Amino acid sequence: YEKGGIKQWRQLQCLDLEGRMNTTWENGNCFKTKSPNWLQMGKSVFLRDPLERFLSAFLDKCVKKVHREGENHCEPTSVFLDQTTGIVGDFLNQTKKLFEMHVDASPLKWNMHFFPLSLHCGGIYQYIDSYDFVGHMDENFYRELNRFSQRFPELNKPIQEVFKLDEMEDTVNKGTETQAALQIAKYYTPKTVRRVLEYTSIDYMLLNLTIPHWAEEMLQMDESP
Length: 225
Description:
- This protein has helices at residues 9-18, 25-28, 30-33, 50-63, 65-71, 77-80, 87-91, 95-105, 141-151, 156-163, 165-168, 180-187, 190-206, 213-223, and strands at 44-47, 133-136.
- The protein is mainly alpha-helical.
- A two-stranded parallel sheet has the order 1-2.
């Protein structure tokens, strides 16, 4: 359990372990108080498009003021959290410029929310073939959740309660679990697409992911005469 989504997966975990929801950070990590048997548990992962994942982390950790100032994950903090420069506040309305600055500065101090997915969990790319379930968090996320519940039927009830899967299964996931997919054109440019692809190419290669069409189109438009 590394870098698990805390908004919903934590609730799923609490329901499975304790039969109840927990909404506070202190009480929400149920595995700390009632740890499951890790050796007997199945291994699962939901993969996400690296370009979208990078932007999602930026929106949550750098643009949201409460997270930017309260969690210190918009790194390097010496650049983006220095109150004397006010860089983020000054450029909030210049979305593409602000994102470009963060993309350029990210390698100076990698943060787990931006770090390549393939290197999480001890290098998941080495072991992913042995996982019991590999899903994708994309526009078909709810269908993937349905596959997940079929693979682990004991989690069906918690999944229904947390994700309302019966209501959402045929819904295209655009902006429900994350707003990043709706913000791509607002923040990305051909330049930042290229830079983030440089950082995350390892994910596309080692996890056998496909570069999204919108990224290819953006790069082709930039090459047009």
